[in-house]
Specification:
Ferritin, about 270 residues, mainly alpha
């Protein structure tokens, strides 16, 4: 194979940076990217625990959760590639975009940290993901509804497991309680973005395709508040300052490092296949 040069890969060259494209040119594509990128990036984070989790059972559970999310990401990104009508595939979208082209929420790209950080991140996301998929299962777009109906079965288990671990670790030893509270406090500012709606959302909400994320916030706060209370953990104020930007391509520095690892083989050997 010739020397790697992603800049000469025709799949990259024919797709300019998003800043050069008119905003809202394709809201369906943007919305599907958000769904797919959330699942893809969180799946990549969870695979980083493989062989390193604190117990064999947790190692397997995290790997299985990551595989579930990876499967969901592939379905969403396949649909996104079709909506774009630009000749790209789900693999192109996963491996040949730069950080500013990703549309995942900032929460899922946060580093694994210690195990408390990973579990709290997962729980915050699961508690949003489950009702979001419930709503999408009733989408007026039959293919979106079908993917969501399949994915919600997996995510129901994800939420049950992450909520249980929040309680067990929060109401565990002094050390586990301290670490869990620190994780809650540090990750809270990335949760507000999950409930924002912009022109992309609103254009699809009006046609019955998308779920209005603003309608999910009260239920999420109730669910999260109940679990944190049972775990003897203090819930930060819902009115606390929130970080945002991931859904429009403004990310933390952590995403670039994650993509450097996730995309390495495809970038080094363009078009390479197993």
């Amino acid at each position: 194979m010739s020397e790697a040069n992603p800049g000469n890969d025709p799949r990259v060259a024919k797709h300019p940076r998003p800043g050069l494209l008119p905003k809202m040119a394709n809201p369906n594509f943007e919305y599907l990217l958000r769904l797919g990128d959330n699942a893809l990036i969180l799946a990549q984070r969870l695979t980083e625990w493989c062989g390193k989790a604190p117990a064999l059972e947790e190692d397997i559970a995290l790997a299985n959760t990551g595989l579930d999310l990876l499967g969901q990401a592939r379905m969403w990104l396949t649909l996104a590639a079709e909506a774009e009508q630009g000749g790209r595939t789900e693999d192109d979208l996963a491996y040949l975009r730069d950080a500013h082209e990703f549309r995942n929420a900032l929460l899922v790209e946060q580093p694994n940290g210690n195990y408390a950080d990973t579990i709290v991140r997962q729980f915050f996301f699961d508690a949003w993901h489950r009702p979001m998929l419930d709503g999408l299962a009733r989408s007026s777009d039959a293919r979106i509804a079908a993917i969501a109906a399949k994915a919600v079965k997996e995510v129901t288990y994800h939420l049950h497991r992450s909520a249980d671990l929040v309680v067990r670790l929060g109401d565990g030893t002094d050390e586990s309680h301290r670490r869990m509270q620190s994780a809650v406090d540090n990750l809270w500012m990335y949760t507000g973005e999950l409930f924002e709606a912009d022109a992309v959302d609103e254009s699809l909400i009006a046609s019955g395709i998308a779920v209005d994320p603003r309608t999910l916030k009260a239920g999420w706060l109730a669910h999260v508040g109940g679990a944190l209370g049972e775990a003897t953990l203090a819930m930060p104020s819902p009115d606390a300052w929130m970080q945002h930007g991931g859904r429009v391509g403004r990310h933390t520095e952590h995403l670039g490092y994650l993509l450097a690892e996730m995309q390495f083989l495809q970038r080094a050997y363009p078009g390479g296949q197993w």
